[in-house]
Amino acid sequence: MAGQSSALVVTMDGEGDGVAGRFQVGTREAARVRLEPLATIGAAQSIGHFYRQLMNVIGFRYFEEYKVMGLAPYGDAARYRGLIARCYTLLERGQYALHPERYGDVVADLRPRKRTEPLEAAHRDFAASLQEATERLLLHVLTHYQAMTGLRQVCLAGGVAHNCSAMGKLLQAGLFDDVFVQPASHDAGCAVGAALWYAQTVGGAPVGARVPHVYWGTDIGDAAAVEAALADWAAVGAVEIERVADVETRTAQLLADGCVVGWVQGRAEFGPRALGNRSILADPRPMANRDRVNAMVQKQDTFQSFACAVTEDAWREYFEAPATVSALPYGTFAVPVRPEQRALLGAVTHVDGTARVQTVTCASNAKFWRLLRAFAACTGVPVLLNTPFHNHVEPIVDSVTDAVTTFLTTRIDVLVAGDYVVRKAAPLDVVIDRFVPSIPAHLTLKERDPGAAPGNSALYRDFPGPPVRVLTRESVSLLVRADGRTPIAGLLDQAAAAGNRDDTLNEMSRLWAERLVCLRPPAAVLA
């Protein structure tokens, strides 16, 4: 995927099949890529596990590594540098040893934080020390293998490669002229690896330039398909839709006027990054937009920064990177914002002066590129705050229906799907009883204690564990009557004891926002 003739190939993650890392020399030979093994890192020396186990001390759990990375710039790495340094040893020839038996020393010096407890200066400092140690380990290993092979190109994959702060440090270190990070470096990237391996097995993988984009997911369809999906929601008075001839210019003006926009176009991005087809967009200039977008979607901790997109021809006016770097198309690197531009780009400049950047060309994503150009025409700045279009409980949206659901259950100002500008027609509490409810397939409604009084029901996941949510008697009465056709209003009318109607509707709204129930317009359900 890197389009390189030869490179050092590195995978680092938590663990897979007992392996936590591998170093190889990759060379292209005709229609095949040949990989020559250099070394393997066993699970006991996993940098991914090192990061994950130590971040538990400050109250972060599995899959929250990105939060620790975002917290680190707020701390002083010197405070716990010596403490964390006791947990690893750098050895000759790029080797290192991890000392998990010493992780307990950390707990002795820093009282573990419960998830519900506030973050204090000590936790920020610990995150900074842990991030610094991880970067030190990574650069120690890569420095050795670069010197050993003499290669000036490197390809990286694995969960460690998704640490965009570490990747930014690698980029700035000058060890390599070209650093390629597989855009889906987490486990989902295994699907691509399997496909490429099979392609070579049966006749050779494609050889040529670097993969131009990763818009390989579900397509929202043509204008007729988008309009049909939106029309179902408009029919119940939830949204107003307008088809716009020049949607990029209209959207740019909305953004310049202060709107936060959900932007859904074409085929979804492959991987965890929003790259302009399933994005929440905002003006990158007002620093207040960072907290504002956060509040709208209850999306992430306030210490985390948002990424940004910029036209490829203008990115060096705002951001710094070595001269050998021509583009940053996948949002995988945090790079310095030019000092003179940091105040201008207040919403996307992190506390350490960096930003995670995606460069956009007309060839890779014409519609998103035109939007950036249109925003520049309005404001003089070809940059947008760009973050994945999802709320705090779901992955990135996929379909138009997903987008409308997230739009209606957050405070996002405007949705743009294809060439359609979508606005909320009425408050959710006014229209919610017009939707048809159902319980998601992965949840089950059942009694917590079959011997207890009625109204003791809760929603459970399809695997052992505590209830996800205990429900009121009125909501239970409504959901047990749900037949996949009748709107909430009709179900409430059928109920023998509907209780307080407003309270029930409010609970349905909260459950929908948490995706603990599904709500759809009647026309969409019947279709």
Question: How are the strands of the largest sheet arranged?
Answer: 8-16-15-9-10-14-11-13-12
The CATH class of the largest domain: Alpha Beta
Low-confidence stretches: none
Percent of residues in helical segments?
Answer: 25-40%
Structural shape: globular
User: What is the straight-line distance between the termini?
Assistant: 40 Å
- How many separate domains make up the residues? 3
Just name the CATH architecture of the largest domain: Alpha-Beta Complex
Share of residues in strands: 15-25%
The CATH H-level homologous superfamily of the largest domain: Carbamoyltransferase, C-terminal domain
What is the β-strand count? 21
Characterize the biggest β-sheet: 9 strands, mixed
CATH topology of the largest domain: DHBP synthase
How large, in whole angstroms, is the Cα Rg? Answer: 25 Å
Structural class: alpha+beta
Mean pLDDT: 92
Helices, by number, come to 17
